[in-house]
Design a protein that fits this description.
Largest sheet: none
Order of helices and strands: HHH
Oligomer: single chain
Strand content: under 5%
Distance between the termini: 20 Å
Shape: elongated
Helix content: over 70%
């Protein structure tokens, strides 16, 4: 999370927007049946979980900044 402290608010919001787009892509891939490969489905779900964790950390950093003002 230390690297998040070095980013501007605009950069953090940009990261959230990118992650939202990425999660949409993951959902689309899962809905398409991921070619019937359970290992690919697990990889996609792991990726989505990591992305969500990153979003939590970004939102926590933005909240911390707001609390300081």
């Amino acid at each position: 999370m230390a690297d998040l402290m070095d980013k501007s608010d605009e950069d953090l919001v940009g990261m959230l927007k990118y992650d939202a787009s990425h999660l949409g892509d993951v959902v689309d891939q899962l809905k398409s049946g991921f070619h019937g490969d359970p290992a690919e489905a697990i990889r996609l779900l792991d990726d989505a979980a990591a992305t969500q964790q990153e979003n939590v950390e970004i939102l926590q950093e933005l909240a911390r900044r707001r609390a300081q003002h």
